[in-house]
Amino acid sequence: MATIADIRRGDKFTHSGRTYIAADDARPSGVTGYYDVTTLPGTAKADDGVIRQGALFGRDITVRPDFAVDIITRGLTVEMLWETTHNQRPEATTASEDAVRFWLGHITRQREAAQRQSADLDLTRDKWIRAALALSVPVTEIAHLAGLSRERIYQIRDGRR
Fold first, then answer.
1. pLDDT at site 92
2. Tens digit of each residue's pLDDT (9 = 90 or more) over 18-40
3. Are 25 and 8 spatial neighbours (Cβ–Cβ below 8 Å)?
């Protein structure tokens, strides 16, 4: 038995007695200690072996990462319309409500994940800056390597940032 954290794009799996196809890899949720996976209905039809989906008809499942799921099939090919058109400006005449709802939610989740990752990287960078200062590396060199000003290095050193 697998867990929700094991789900990858294209996996067909069961959860709480229902069958789903993962539209994306499972990812840490905005809710601490939980995982999200965006799903399509398990009945989605495959054209020539490819599941093509123009709008999201499934839902996000949010559960703890150790929640057991039964993976039926791995690696189904899933092609999402918004992945091939996401760089195009949405036109009011062609954008469906489902696509708009999906995109706004999807982009928001991506931004939140990037912001969490950026914050984690900032903390790691700040620890290395403090380590460099403790080793008496010149502040000008640290600032150059980190792409920061000397003032910012002193703020990090003093815990003001």
1. 47
2. 888 887 788 777 666 676 777 76
3. yes
The DSSP 8-state label assigned to residue 87 in this structure reads T
Please say whether the beta carbons of 77 and 53 come within 8 A.
Answer: no
Cα 139 to chain centroid distance, Å, stands at 35
Return the number of other C-beta atoms located less than 10 Å from residue 136's C-beta. 7
Residue 32: what pLDDT?
Answer: 64
In the block, tokens 């062609």 appear at 94
How far is residue 145's CA from residue 135's CA, in Å, rounded to a whole number? 15
Token pair for 50: 């490819």
Distance, CA of 112 to CA of 29 (rounded, Å)? 9
User: DSSP letters along 117-150, please?
Assistant: HHHHHHHHHHHHHHHHHHTT--HHHHHHHHT--H
**What are the tokens at 65?**
């990462």
Which range of 20-29, 89-98, 137-146 scores highest in mean pLDDT? It is: 137-146
Measuring CA to CA, which residue among 41, 117, 29, 115 is closest to residue 76?
Answer: 41
